[in-house]
Design a protein that fits this description.
Layout lengths: L3 E4 H10 L10 E4 L3 H82 L1 H20 L2 E4 L12 E9 L7 E7 L1 E4 L2 E4 L1 E8 L1
Parallel strand pairs: 1-2, 4-8
Antiparallel strand pairs: 3-6, 5-8, 6-7
Helix pairs in contact: 2-3
């Protein structure tokens, strides 16, 4: 029986299937496996690795772009929110400055009407309370520095200085002439005070 040209694999398969045909071995020609196939396999593996590197590089580029876009969006949202808060705060502060002047006039009227008493005085007191409540609802607080409180140039406007013999009392509030107003940590109108000075 002539088998013709076969590969090692084919020959091995042939032997397994025909173990009792020992006399036919002389007719079999074994061809070595193609060495080019191994080189082709190596080339394919190299190409696949190169393709994988390219895909990973593209993935990293897309990921970096997405992360930059996300960071830009977060920063834009934060800036927009801060600008909106700033505009709101500016608007509140502008309105508050106008209302504070009216509030001061009401307090002066309240002091004048206090001597007379009666319903006019009670009406002025009620309007003053309502106005103060409206300011508080919009984040504006009235503050009155107490004697001995440390002078703060951000919240206090010095109207006069008073000499003191105590070094501990240096740069403290002696008297408050007019209350101040603030929105958060920003003074809308500083309190007008006299300040103690040592020496």
């Amino acid at each position: 029986m002539i088998l013709g040209k076969v590969t090692e694999f084919d020959f091995t398969l042939y032997l397994i299937q025909n173990t009792n045909m020992n006399d036919a071995y002389d007719d079999v020609i074994i061809e070595p496996e193609d060495d080019g196939a191994e080189e082709k396999g190596d080339a394919k593996i190299k190409k696949l690795r190169d393709d994988l590197k390219k895909v990973k590089a593209e993935r990293d580029e897309y990921l970096a772009g997405w992360q930059r876009s996300k960071a830009d969006y977060v920063n834009l949202s934060r800036r927009t929110r801060e600008q909106e808060e700033s505009r709101t705060r500016s608007g509140v502060m502008g309105i508050a400055r106008s209302i504070i002047t009216v509030f001061d006039s009401l307090e002066a009227a309240q002091k004048a009407a206090e001597a007379v008493g009666g319903s006019v005085f009670d009406g002025i007191v009620q309007v003053t309370k309502q106005l103060e409540h409206a300011l508080k609802e919009n984040g504006v607080e009235r503050f009155t520095p107490q004697e001995g409180e440390q002078f703060n140039p951000n919240f206090h406007e010095p109207m006069q200085t008073v000499a003191t013999e105590s070094e501990v009392e240096d740069n403290t509030v002696s008297e408050t002439f007019q209350s101040g107003y603030k929105a958060g940590e920003t003074a809308i109108r500083p309190a007008r005070v006299s300040v103690k000075k040592y020496g």
